[in-house]
Amino acid sequence: MPIITVKDLTKRFGNTTAVDGISFEVEKGTVFGFLGPNGAGKTTTINILCTLLSPSSGTALIDGDDCVKKSAEVRKKIGIVFQDNTLDKELTAYENLLFHSYLYSVPKSERRERIYDALHFVGLYERKGDPVKKFSGGMKRRLEVARSIIHQPRVLFLDEPTLGLDPQSRTNLWEFISKLPEQQGVTIFMTTHYMEEAEICRKIAIIDKGKIIAQGSPEELKKMVGGDVIYLKTRDDASAINDLKTLFHLDAEELNGELFITVSGGGDACIPKLIGALGDRVVSVRLQRPTLNDVFLKLTGKDIRPETISGNSEIKDTMRTYRRKFDK
Amino acid sequence: MIQSDLNAIYVVVARELIKFTRERGRLISTLARPLIWLFLVGGGMSRVVSPTMGVPYIQFIFPGIIGMTILFSSIFSSISIIWDKEFGFMKEMLAAPVSRFSIVVGKALSGTAVSTIQALIIVLLFPILGLRLNLAQIVLVLCVSIMLSFCLSSLGILIASFYESFESFSVIMNFIVMPMFFLSGAMYPVQLLPHVLGVISRLNPLTYGIDALKHMIFAPSALITHDFPLGLDITVITASSIAFVVIAGNVFERRK
Q1: CATH for A226-289, among 2.60.40.1230, 3.40.50.460, 3.30.70.120, 3.40.1110.10?
Q2: Which among A99, A224, B10, B221 is least surrounded, fewest beta carbons within 10 Å?
Q3: Each residue's pLDDT tens digit, A295-318
């Protein structure tokens, strides 16, 4: 039985339809990726699943409980890492987690142990007594991940968990996140617009303008691009193109001094055959698998991360930090 | 269910008090305002205004200054909700498996605690003003302060629940808090106000709080200073507290 079942979910804000009749299922203990550009409806969907928003129509079930009718039950079963930081920066790391454990009624006898375990898990145990305002962006995110698992949720929602982090912190954070399903037995529902981060997902749904335009495993989605791409460098391009055509029915094009061949199915199995046929005419071979970004490009005709939008969100973050300093 | 809400109330109050004790500057700055009003305004005006109300002016405004302390610290404390919204912490609370009502009550109680502490510090200045209060009076003043603090903290939460960002702060200060202070009988008896302003001040819960404080602080012989019967004061404070908490709770419960 799937742990999340969403059916014909729609959310309208006035005249705009943020989420437009989406349906999907998430299997227990897996990582599910919800991919799409900014403004596609990812956060709206998460907010509905987390019972913070009511859908206009359609249903969402988490572990069998309806997100609208049984919101109290749903809340106990889920953990959330929101897109924006939601820590109290004046409190220490330990105090933030303690606050959480009270809110989620963690039994008194287990509070300290669970908090320490979570802090060890994300590597912040040594910093437990420091105020969060002294933490870096990556540490804050890790602390939020630690907080979200203290009440042992069945489903963990991660909304753009790596947004605004430097590449090293991102890698670091994914290390912790990818361990979660196995170590904590939790199902992960994550959104991101960093396509490469979605590689760890068992299943992915790609959302654009409120609609799911493709679903499947990363491999399945990449196949939609039309297979792998092989780049060949040869001593005699003309004869190679001719041989590829007659022997394998493959169309090769010359591109920047290389031959560019799209192969349906696995490209790796194809390489030995090509080399066998072309012999010492081959100088070098390069295989490139399609990326999830190529999938999005293929489906929508646009890049998932237009520069202007990500630029804006950075400005927003900076403004926030500035206002914070100004207020205090 | 009930246990989880009590946990939530407890932890919301605990968080607020921890932060209050860490920010010593906040205590000093919030106490500075009533002290300035009491000694600079009250002290100066005492030389201009003759004690026609049965007590010297600096004594007359003493309950009003206690009320002011409570008003400002309660509203400021509640307005931390807007901070919580702005900096995201509110989401952590709203997504938790506890009723929104318990968050509102927790916030109201923490505002109550913080502003009662400050009110008590001001109350204890009474010997400097030449007032004589016995222990029973001090305890009663404290009781009224607690009730008034809860009432105004709840009002602050209600106000804060309508605002999403801190840009509205000066609007709240200039159009809600300052008029509430001046139209409360803190600086002059409500009866002396022109008709329209008199009506507005009768809609102001702070008026009744300050009036109740006057009942507690001044001897019955000096009773020309108060405006309403004590029973009415207590009823209005209690009723408006309940109304504010219930409305604020509902506003928070509302899902878009």
Answers
A1: 3.30.70.120
A2: B221
A3: 777 777 666 655 444 444 444 455
